[in-house]
Amino acid sequence: MFTSVIIPAYNEESRIKSTLDGIKDIEKIDEIIVVDDGSSDNTKKVLESYNCEKLKFHIQNLNKGKGRALEIGLKMLDSRAEIVVFLDGDLGSTSVEVIKIIEPVINGECDVCIAQFRPASKKGGMGFVKRLARDSVYKQTGVILNATISGQRAFKRQVIEKFESIPDGYGVEVGMTIDILKWGYRIKEVIVDMTHNETGRDLSGFIHRGKQYLHIRKIAKAKEKEWGNK
């Protein structure tokens, strides 16, 4: 099955090359699309000099957010693509683990497969955000998932094409998960040995988690209202 990977990247010059190195030789990946979302560093130069026949990239001059970057990537999909994978640009060499979420979709075990990271090496205070995300999905769907905020996901193309647009903000994954389950699709979580830039316990880290919490609450309420009216 033709598989395409979409990577939104913002200021990832130090990690995007190793992220691409980790996936470029995976036989089951046929296409890699990177959308540089208005980076102010040298991400663009790294992409322009990267040698890989599978790679296509798009450079945006302005930062428009992850949701818009993913939408651009979807527009660039090869017509043959049957599986679409969302992957973050800061995974480095651990991106090779993406095969663990691709294979269950190829094998028909599920319609969407989500990467569940192992516990972080340092405490980042993410517990309350993850609980809110998990509880919001369970309340509306009756399904318990542990990786509802994970951005590493493999979809059957027909699932991702049901979305008229990709929501922006930190609640995007929670909102999409609720919709996918409400539509009757099967989701599977798989534990992976991926790592990315961890949010610390400094002021900026707490502000980041606060924004995540508020975004998730907002989209959960919106989905409750939306699906309650159907």
Structure overview:
The protein is of the alpha/beta class. The chain has one domain: Alpha-Beta Complex (Spore Coat Polysaccharide Biosynthesis Protein SpsA, Chain A), CATH 3.90.550.10. The chain contains 8 helices and 7 strands. It has helices at 16-23, 43-49, 66-75, 99-106, 127-141, 157-160, 172-182, 203-228; strands spanning 3-9, 31-37, 55-60, 83-86, 112-117, 153-156, 187-192. It has a 7-stranded mixed sheet, sandwiched between helices. α5 packs parallel to α7 (172-182), α5 (127-141) packs parallel to α8 (203-228) and α7 (172-182) runs parallel beside α8 (203-228). The N and C termini lie far apart (34 Å). The relative contact order is 0.16. The mean pLDDT is 92.
